[in-house]
Design goal:
With about 160 residues, this protein is an alpha+beta fold. The chain is built from three helices and four strands; from the N terminus they run αααββββ. It has a four-stranded antiparallel sheet.
Length: about 160
């Protein structure tokens, strides 16, 4: 008995079919039909994508502040100005955490993004907000995403 997983069985049954070839007499080039363009993303799919990008970016930014993630991992997602501001704030947070305050060591411990909301400002701009729960407090994060040439980039990141 041969066991086939669901992934392999779907891949085996949905193999792409090549278009049928036809014989053309003469020297003219055969007519080639262009593949149909994929349907454009609808607003609902785009809003879900923005929420997913926002969630992962906010989670990573809070982890940078906690010192568990290097800030350079966000260099493709954040605008250079936002990245520099995040690195500066992370350095200040590390300096405070090494001080004498008893609660400073508990800053940014076990962060998790509770909810994300996105609002479309224009075709190429979204603004999003997120609620982040940490061990000792709840904080709000606001961000602005703009469509770049290759991907969405965060141009403003405000962590409360």
């Amino acid at each position: 008995m041969n066991a086939v997983t669901g992934i392999r069985s779907v891949a085996a049954t949905t193999a792409p079919h090549a278009p049928a070839l036809r014989v053309v007499s003469g020297t003219a080039a055969p007519a080639v039909r262009a593949a149909p363009a994929p349907p454009p993303l609808c607003v609902v799919d785009e809003a879900r994508e923005i929420c997913a990008i926002s969630r992962s970016t906010v989670q990573a930014a809070i982890e940078v502040l906690a010192g568990t993630r290097p800030a350079q991992q966000l260099s493709r997602r954040l605008d250079p100005r936002c990245l520099a501001a995040l690195q500066h704030r992370a350095a200040l947070t590390r300096r405070v955490a090494s001080g004498s305050s008893p609660t400073a060591g508990r800053l940014h411990r076990n962060p998790s993004v509770r909810s994300v909301r996105a609002c479309r400002v224009s075709d190429d701009v979204y603004e999003a907000s997120a609620v982040v729960v940490e061990e000792s407090r709840v904080r709000a994060v606001a961000l602005r995403l703009e469509r770049g040439t290759a991907a969405w980039r965060v141009t403003v990141l405000e962590i409360g």
